[in-house]
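Quick illustration, no need to memorize.
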Amino acid sequence: MYASEVEDALGAHPAVAAVAVFGVPDDRWGEAVRAVVVRQKASFEEQRATMEQIVAALGEGLLALSPRGKVVFANAVVGELFGAQGQLGGRSFLEVVRRQPLVDAFDRAIRGETISERLSLTSGGRERQIEVRAFPVGASTEIAAVALFIDMTEVERLQRIRKDFLDDFSHEVRTPLAGLRSAAETLEQRGLTAEEEEHLRRIIVRQVGRIGRLVRDLSELNRIESGELVLERANVDLVEEVVRAVCDEFRERRAAQPVKLTMRSDGPVIASVDVERMQQVIVNLIDNAWKHGGDGEIEVEVTRDGGDAVVRVSDEGAGIPSHDLERIFNRFYRLDKSRSQETPGLGLGLAIAKHLVLLHGGTIAAKNRDTRGAQFEVRVPTG
């Protein structure tokens, strides 16, 4: 009998194989058995290593418990979620997770129940929403229950963004739709003068434009918040390639409405930014200053402060009420609700600016000046 035959016998029926092997006292049988054992052990170790690689590569936490509540195996995700250091195998489940409700849930899984629960935990300095799915393993004597720990934080964040988008759009679109409906109904009436018809047409064009801007700005904001927008960074001089370019364009766009817009800097300020997106930030800040700054001067300052590039946009308007300073960057937030129809804009510009700055790893803040007006300060790393 050759080694392959011995291996077949071992796999098919150990008793038959024992008779076949030990019934004939031949050294060749011992060598054949040793060869089979070596191959099977190597195959077992290879399969075990493959399974360990698969478990380690899972994006979810995977953990198995013995009937006595000891950890049989757990991948690195479990340790990272619960802040457990070192080797987890052989330790009690409570020692690893330090949460009695989870221990109780696993006890039920060990007794034969399938468990699905949601929990909040702080891991890696941020709060996470974790879905736990535990189920019994009846076919094993070593493993009584297995659980998956699925991080639902990002899924819930995207669902919230989607819900906010739909809620915001449905709320904000009501006003222009009401204006369109009223204008259309009036146009259907007879006896209108040419001047009245022209006025109604201007209303329709204006409200359609407002809906278009609403869709564009909301889509832009949700792209940023959902992480779909990828910055194309380059080391540029913020003074010349961002701020001065925006100021020149703004003066051209407002040529019919002269704007006192001044710019000053201490020289070149180099930072790694997405030029188009950083220009968008400055445009939104200057546009906000122009809307709320009255007839005063708008000043844009570019400087360096330690490891930060700093851009400040100041106006000479009425300033910002103290209770509004923290909410000024919320979407659709308007300082003067009574003038919401008179003041152009949708209340999304500052929200977009905030998220673009955060995407650059920077900060944005608003404050009132000591004399008069408001000041917005943007900081982005120079490195």
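Residues 136 and 276 are 55 Å apart (CA to CA).
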